[in-house]
Write a structure and sequence with these properties.
Structural class of chain A: mainly alpha
Oligomer: heterodimer
Largest sheet of chain A: 3 strands, antiparallel
Number of helices of chain B: 14
Keywords (chain B): Cell membrane, Membrane, Transmembrane, Transmembrane helix
Number of domains of chain B: 1
Number of domains of chain A: 1
Organism (chain B): Desulfoscipio geothermicus DSM 3669
Shape of chain A: elongated
Largest sheet of chain B: 3 strands, antiparallel
Helix content of chain A: over 70%
InterPro entries (chain B): TM_pro_TauE-like, TSUP/Inactive_protease-like
Distance between the termini of chain B: 30 Å
Protein name (chain B): Probable membrane transporter protein
Strand order of the largest sheet of chain A: 1-2-3
Number of strands of chain B: 3
Helix content of chain B: over 70%
Strand order of the largest sheet of chain B: 1-2-3
Membrane topology (chain B): Multi-pass membrane protein
Strand content of chain B: under 5%
Order of helices and strands of chain A: EHHHEEH
């Protein structure tokens, strides 16, 4: 197994910078409060429709389920907003690597199914970003103010 | 930048429009992304030209372009499940037994869907049909009939809610959440499980069969399938929304991942730079949208979007070309 140390360093550095930036931005734009609000609204419609069902009000039951459905769509949209902020910069970084730095970071001694002869810069970026997030960011989150939403 | 199609500023601007509209109207995000790729930036044509220039046969180049468009669509869909599903699991909001039953069918469906032969032209035609019907639905949502109905529904809900409040105390959400799920009975014909304090009963085979057909249709068109799964779970199995939310998004993730792998194996070559720039735009637009919503009536944006979707729906279906209108 041969490791391209220079490429591994540059790609890991990019992953660390982008991951840190994403954590700071997503903490500022966190949708957690909005999601909690919508979820309690969904719960409310669910309880109301159950009550309507218990008293035999079929049309009322259908009406609450419909409103619950619409509220659920709002919930999905809120999740999408949150997710796109957390993912967009990573995809952009992966795109830059795919286009301008398509090097093999680790060359395997044998052909591995799904990877081929080696691990490229895109794959190495994903591993570095995950490792940095779970090993560093998660541990630092309680200590660093910028890594948390403003109300936490 | 060396992009297959379009220039980065235009792609960013289109992304902002998509994010703006999606966050304001709550629909048509994937369709606008598709319109951007095929009509604004002509991504498919540029890709076919690039591949043919590199010596790839025309039929193969067209198939690769079609599969790449589908992967781009699925990529736009998959981001929210990627972020949300681990959190849902952590918060015990996924009805795992139900998700596993549906996912069993979904995996098979998402493998078979991409195998069903469909040319780029046919794909665009059917996407046009979907676009056209969503346009009609959006138009309907701007009519007085719909708005009156919705208002009436809200008024009835408020009255009923007030009455219920008088009669009973509300349940404790957090205590129930801590319980998560528990399988009470599981065999081929029956699955009974307790989720957040309530018992549900479903037929696992029916769940898997439904998931199978939904996955075939969704993966054929490069969609997540959430728009079919939510009504399926809530109407056929009569499951409440708090069960449907976490479960359906988990199934969407399974379907999208399997379909993306299938399309990559069939020659799709996703352009991550193109998608990355567009996603940055979508992120900006989705936060700008709600902030500026108070300055105009949402109805007009909805009407405008409905007109755009109807127009492009007919264009994809080849109606304008058949009428000899050179659009």
């Amino acid at each position: 197994m041969v490791i391209n140390v220079k490429a591994a360093f540059f790609v890991s550095l990019l992953a660390v910078i982008v991951t840190t930036l994403v954590v700071i931005i997503s903490a500022r734009l966190s949708q957690q409060k909005r999601k909690d609000e919508i979820m309690s609204e969904i719960k409310k419609y669910n309880e109301l429709s159950r009550d309507a069902s218990e008293v035999g009000a079929k049309s009322m039951y259908a009406a609450f389920q419909k409103q619950g459905n619409e509220t659920l769509m709002n919930y999905f949209m809120t999740i999408y907003k949150e997710a796109v902020v957390e993912i967009a910069l990573h995809v952009l970084a992966l795109g830059i690597l795919q286009k301008y730095y398509p090097v093999t970071v680790i060359r395997f001694p044998i052909h591995v199914w799904g990877f081929g002869d080696g691990l490229g810069s895109v794959g190495w970026y994903v591993i570095s970003a995950f490792a940095f997030f779970f090993l560093v960011i998660k541990r630092l989150r309680p200590k660093i103010r910028f890594f948390r939403p403003y109300w936490v | 930048m060396d992009l297959i199609a379009g220039n980065p500023i235009m792609i960013l601007l289109w992304g902002i429009i998509v994010g703006y509209v999606f966050s304001t109207v709550g629909a048509a995000g994937a369709i606008l992304t598709f319109i951007g790729q095929t009509i604004v930036f002509k991504f498919d044509k540029a890709m076919i030209k690039n591949l043919m220039g590199a010596g790839v046969a025309e039929a193969e180049a067209k198939a690769a372009a079609k599969n790449t468009l589908k992967v781009h669509n699925l990529m736009a869909v998959i981001f929210s499940p990627i972020i949300a599903v681990p959190r849902y699991f952590k918060e015990k909001r996924v009805a795992i037994p139900l998700a596993m039953c549906v996912a069993a069918g979904v995996v098979l469906g998402a493998i078979i869907g991409p195998m069903i032969p469909m040319t780029l032209k046919q794909y665009k035609f059917w996407f046009g049909v979907i676009t056209f019907f969503i346009g009609i639905r959006l138009y309907y949502e701007t009519t007085e009939t719909y708005r009156k109905g919705k208002q009436k529904l809200q008024n009835i809900s408020k009255k009923f809610e007030a009455k219920v409040k008088e009669l009973k105390q509300s349940g404790n959400w957090n205590e129930l959440a801590a319980e998560g799920f528990k399988v009470n009975r599981f065999n081929v014909s029956s699955l009974k499980f307790t989720f957040w304090g309530e018992e549900f009963s479903i037929n696992p085979i029916m769940a898997a069969v439904g998931g199978f057909f939904i996955a075939i249709i969704a993966s054929m068109f490069g969609l997540g399938g959430g728009f079919m799964l939510v009504p399926y779970l809530s109407s056929v199995f009569v499951l409440p929304m708090f069960v449907v939310s976490g479960t359906s998004i988990t199934i969407v993730l399974v379907n999208s991942v399997v379909a993306i792998i299938s399309y990559l194996q069939k020659g799709a070559q996703p352009d991550l730079l193109f998608m990355g720039i567009m996603l940055v735009g979508i992120a900006i637009g989705s936060f700008v949208g709600p902030a500026t919503q108070k300055y105009y009536k949402e109805k007009y944006l909805r009407l405008f979007l409905a007109a755009i979707l109807l127009f492009y729906g007919l264009r994809y279906m080849g109606v304008w070309a058949a009428l000899g209108i050179p659009i």
